Amino acid sequence: MTAHPADPSPGRGQQEEAIAFLGDPRTHGGRAVERIDTHAALVFLVGDRALKLKRAVRYPYLDYSTVEKRHTACAAELAINRRTAPALYRGMVAIRRGNDGSLRLEDGDGAGEAPREAAGEAVDWLVSMARFPDEALFDRMAERRALTPDLMRRLAERIAAFHREADPRPDGGGLAAMRTVADGNFQDLRAMPDMFPADVVARLAERTGNALDRLAPLLEERRRTGFVRHGHGDLHLRNIVLLDGEPTLFDAIEFDEALAVADVFYDLAFLLMDLDHRGLRPLGNVVLNRYLEETGDYGGLAALPLFLSLRAAVRAKVSAAALRLGGKAEGLAEEARHYLDHALAALDRVPARLLAVGGLSGTGKTRLALGIAPGLGPAPGAVVLRSDVLRKRLCGVADTDRLPADGYAPAVTERVYAELCRRAAAVLAAGHAVVIDAVSARPDERRRIEAVAAAAGTRFDGIWMEAPLAERVERVTNRRNDASDATADVVERQESYDLGTIGWTRLDSGRVAAEVLDDARASLA
Fold first, then answer.
1. Is 199 exposed, middle or buried, given 0-12, 13-18 or 19+ CB atoms closer than 10 A?
2. Which CATH superfamily is domain 353-524 in?
3. Which end is more exposed in the chain, N or C (fewer Cβ atoms within 10 Å of the end residue's Cβ)?
4. pLDDT tens, position by position, 411-454
C-alpha cells in the first residue's frame, strides 16, 4: 500500500453530506445524537445503538478511501468481532440516496449480513452496534481506578481462551511480519520530524533492529509451532468493555489481516503496554501472570520487550495521526512523544533474577510475592510461580477446588517442586525475572530452587516469612476463594517440621503488610 503521510484524508469531502445526515436528529426520528471521533472512524450514538462510519482516509496501514473499501471493511468488522462480542455487533446499515436526491438509512440491523440490494445508490456503509455506557470502557475504568486485580485476572482468562480458539496461521506472523511492523513505524515516525526528534527515532530504529536480529530464531520457531494466530490486533483498554459483568473484547482489526495475524504475545503486549503507560504496571503484572497460568507459554517472554516497544511506537504514530485530524494539539502531541519514549525504554536490558519467598502456611508468602513482582525485572514485572496453583493444575482441578489428602503425597510434592524449577529455568532463560512462592520447608527444596539461579548464572534472593502461630491460624481460617488448602490443623502440624538451617533473609510478617513489603524491597535493593 502506498504511503500518503501528508494527505491522510483523500476522500474527506465525499463524506461531509453523510456525516451531517447522521448527526441530524431528524434522521433518527428526533432522537438525540452524540458523536465520537477517532482517527479512523466516527461513531454516532443514538438510543440503544451506535452507528460506526469509517472515515474516508488512507494511511500506510489502512485504506478506507472508497465506498467499496469501506463496505468490505464493515463486513469484515462484523465477522471478526463476533468471535469475541457477538451480542455487541448487530449488522450493517447502508446510507442510500433516494430518487429525490435525499439520503436515507436502509437498516439491516441484526440480520448478520449486508442489507439487501435496493433502489438507490449506496453512499456509504455503517456498522451497527449495541450501545453501552462509556463508563464501561476499560480505559474509562482505568482513569477512575476502577480496574481491580480480580477483573484483570478474568480478562486474562478471556484473552487466553480467545487465543486458544483462534486459528493458527503459520503462513503469517514471524520475523517478516515484525520487521514489516517496525519498518512501517519508522517510516511514519520519520515523516513527522516536528513531532518526533530524528535522533530518538534513529536510536529506537537501531535498537529495534538489533532485537529483531537477536530474536529471529525464536520468532520463526513460534510461527512454525502454532503461536502465530488470527488474534485481535488492537487489544488496548479502549477496545475492552465490561458487558453484563464480564470483560469483552471488541473493535478488533479488520482492515489488514496481516496486522491481526501475529504472535499471541504480540497481541497481548498491546494491553500490557497500555497498562504500563498509564502507570498501572501492577495490573499488567496480574494480567501477565494469569495469562501464563492459563497458557504455560513462558517461551514468549523473551520477545515481550520487543513487542511492548513496537506497540508503543504504533501508539505514538496513531496519536500523531489523530492530532493531524484536528485533535487536542497539546494533549495529543505530549502523548505521542511519551509513547516514543516508552518504546525506547521498553528495550532497556534488565537482568533476569530469581526470588524465592518461603515460609509456613499463613505467613503471607503470596501477598508478598504478588506485591513485589511488579518491581522486578522487565515490564510488567516478574513471573510469579505459586506452588498452590501449580499443584491444582497438575492434579487437573480448578484453583479453588480442594484436593484430597493424596494430592499432598510426597510424590506429588516432588512433582510440584520439579515443575516449579523447570518453569523458573524457562523464565530465566527468556531473560525475565521470576518469583517462586512455595513453603520450601525442607532444606533440599530450598537448595533445589537456589540451584536454578546458579545454573542460569543469575542473581538469587531468598526471603523466609515468619509469623506467630496464632496469627497464621487466623489467616488460613479467614481465607476465601484461594488456591491454598491449608487449614488450622495443617498450620499446627507444621510446628513440628524440622526446617534445618535457613540462610534466606528472615522477615517478620506478623505486621502491617505494607511494612513487610517495604522491608522486603529494601532487602532486595
1. exposed
2. P-loop containing nucleotide triphosphate hydrolases (3.40.50.300)
3. C
4. 999 999 999 999 999 999 999 999 999 999 999 999 999 999 99
